[in-house]
Amino acid sequence: MSETSEKFHFVMVHGFSHGAWCWYKIRSLLEASDHKVSCIDLKGSGIDPSDPNTIFTFQDYNKPLINLLSNLPQNQKVILVGHSSGGQSLTYAIHKFANKIRMAIYVGATMLKHGMQGDPDLSMYGDVCKKIYGLGADQPATSMMIKEEFQRKILYHLSSKEDSTLAVMLMRPGPLRPLVGLRFTEGVKAESVPRVYIKTLQDRVLKREQQEAMVKRWPPSLVFALESDHCPFFSTPTLLFAFLLKAAASVNAAT
């Protein structure tokens, strides 16, 4: 029996400053194998019209994901795939909707059972972040993004020039307020959802040792590793696609 014999519904959750657009290669590969794929824009991201400087809660930021899961028929389950800070959206979802999630796959993503992690340390690259103060200069920043001249070096250094150019054109400032002091406290059924972690070994945002520490602290059922930059959907899409299918197949093997 091949790994693609059963068809799954994958829900792809982007990371900070990105959008549904970043999954275009993975979506094409999955759909070519007859899987269903939903790529969502979190609020204030991608083509969502909301101003990221007006988004203040994590629940509001995740409204598109919440709506998708809330509207699923009772007998349907999805495989969530989250990248980077999108991992926190996955954790939030499995605390709230464990009965609707077949598996959660973290791709170079934040995987913390109870939330809380500071901004990635990019200080070695200099002053790389542009912050926006939507409530006034005397208030904390409301959104942020990596300055254009640093984006390829930090995010896409192993990706094609075409993909990094596309990303530079599409990235938006991500809302900061929803991620400040983020805590997950409820949802005892969260442990019933199998988790898989896909490490991005050449990652310059979420360093390899940080990923390994999260895996050790909250062990998933499976761990894969990619020799990719922070964005394997661009730099190693075929291998990422293969790991997603292996992860999905492992659920059936375990049941």
UniProtKB/TrEMBL annotation:
Which residue numbers delimit the AB hydrolase-1 domain? Answer: 10-240
**Residues of the signal peptide:** none
Does the keyword section mention Hydrolase? yes
Q: Quote one Gene Ontology molecular function term.
A: methyl jasmonate esterase activity
Keyword tags = Hydrolase
Biological process (GO), any one: jasmonic acid metabolic process
Q: Which PANTHER family match?
A: METHYLESTERASE 17-LIKE, METHYLESTERASE FAMILY MEMBER
- Name of the protein in question: Methylesterase 17
Gene source species: Hibiscus syriacus
Show the taxonomic lineage: Eukaryota, Viridiplantae, Streptophyta, Embryophyta, Tracheophyta
